[in-house]
């Protein structure tokens, strides 16, 4: 299994590098053509579009470097590998795009203040039209490859290329308008192009920052992992599943599982190992911890009490879930975890309110309610 995982990572890196190289070659050709057309025609919009293609080529170079560094094997200094470097490379790409957009915006405004008449030829129009087609196919190809290997940088580059196709078409349309009506829209189209470039860069930056800060994992994916855990004999429920990302598709995880209070230490040990094994085999996630919630299953009165407490708690708006129940009848104490929706302004106050309601119904017991997080 580990060998298969290594092969998959190597294949993923090869795909990223190969796709990025194709992007670099295509963008360099587009830069050469558009720069030539822009200089010959005096079109600031075409020149700015060429600058955008140059930034795309540079972004592909950064993506390759990031993929190579992220693919380094774990060592003593970084025992969990270098996968997060991909997030940093994506952040650099975002800054490059934003810088290109700001520069383009400034130049466009200058041309609005001091306009220059563009001079288009049939050849220049054909080249711009060809650029639209190239960017369209390049964008679809790069984005599809990025989605297949879960590469944020490739997906962003592909989306950017598709958007560039639209922007290049806008340049072509403005050229046609100038030739037919004699109205120059070059500088104004340049402003629009610049705005979209900046917007694209900011969105890329924010998405990458989400990855660095740690964002909510896709809910369906978490359900699949929990379903795998609950397939293990003896597991009554799976909660508090936390995944820590160390690069795209590289997770370490921890979880709490509910088990009958009748299991022995040896049986619990075997269960924990089985959970870790199943999750790794099916999802490639290394479980760093499997916490235990011991649940009353053999005492009918305790089971009935748990159901009543759960019903009372869930009757309050904002309560998403209760779990981790344990009723100690000998010491007259109850402990449980409660998840409150983030939309509730004062979640602790709501927990205290619910606690008082439960204590009023079961005055002979003391209650400990832990406020849990909605992961």
> What would you call the structural class?
alpha/beta
Mind describing the biggest β-sheet? Answer: 3 strands, mixed
Q: How many individual helices?
A: 10
End-to-end CA span: 29 Å
Q: Could you characterize what this model shows?
A:
The protein is α/β, with parallel strands linked by helices and 375 residues long. The protein has ten helices and six strands. It has helices spanning 2-41, 44-70, 85-113, 122-149, 152-181, 186-213, 219-230, 265-283, 300-314, 347-361; strands spanning 237-245, 251-260, 286-295, 319-328, 333-340, 366-372. It has a three-stranded mixed beta sheet, with helices on one face. Strands 4-5-6 form a three-stranded mixed beta sheet, covered by helices on one side. The chain starts with a helix and ends with a strand.
How would you briefly describe this protein structure?
About 65% of the residues lie in helices and about 15% in strands.
């Amino acid at each position: 299994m580990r060998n298969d995982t290594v092969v998959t990572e190597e294949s993923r890196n090869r795909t990223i590098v190969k796709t990025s190289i194709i992007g670099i070659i295509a963008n360099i050709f587009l830069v050469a053509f558009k720069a030539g057309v822009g200089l010959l025609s005096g079109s600031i919009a075409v020149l700015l579009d060429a600058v955008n293609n140059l930034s795309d080529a540079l972004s592909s170079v950064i993506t390759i470097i990031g993929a190579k560094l992220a693919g380094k094997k774990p060592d003593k200094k970084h025992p969990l590998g270098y996968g997060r470097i991909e997030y940093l490379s994506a952040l650099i790409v975002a800054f490059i795009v934003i810088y290109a957009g700001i520069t383009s915006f400034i130049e466009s405004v200058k041309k609005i203040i001091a306009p220059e008449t563009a001079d288009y030829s049939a050849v220049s129009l054909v080249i711009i039209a060809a650029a639209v087609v190239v960017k369209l196919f390049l964008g679809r190809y790069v984005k599809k490859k990025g989605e297949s290997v879960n590469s944020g940088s490739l997906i962003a580059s592909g989306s950017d290329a598709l958007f560039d196709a639209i922007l290049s078409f806008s340049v072509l349309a403005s050229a046609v308008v100038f030739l037919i009506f004699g109205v120059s829209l070059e500088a104004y189209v340049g402003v629009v192009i610049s705005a979209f470039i900046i917007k694209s860069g900011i969105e890329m930056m924010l998405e990458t920052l989400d990855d660095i800060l740690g964002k909510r994992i896709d809910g369906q994916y978490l359900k699949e992992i929990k379903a795998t855990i609950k397939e293990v004999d003896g597991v009554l429920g799976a909660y508090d599943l936390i995944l820590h990302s160390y690069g795209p598709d590289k997770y370490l995880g921890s979880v709490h599982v509910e088990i009958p209070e009748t299991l022995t230490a040896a049986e619990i040990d075997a269960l924990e190992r089985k959970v870790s094994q199943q999750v790794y085999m099916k999802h490639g996630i290394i479980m760093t911890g499997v916490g235990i919630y011991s649940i009353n299953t053999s005492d009918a009165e305790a089971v009935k009490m748990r159901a009543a407490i759960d019903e009372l708690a869930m009757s309050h708006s904002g309560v998403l879930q209760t779990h981790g129940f344990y009723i100690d009848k000998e010491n007259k104490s109850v402990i449980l975890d409660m998840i409150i929706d983030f939309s509730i302004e004062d979640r602790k106050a709501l927990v205290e309110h619910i606690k008082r309601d439960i204590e009023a119904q079961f005055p002979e017991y003391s209650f400990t309610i832990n406020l849990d997080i909605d992961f």
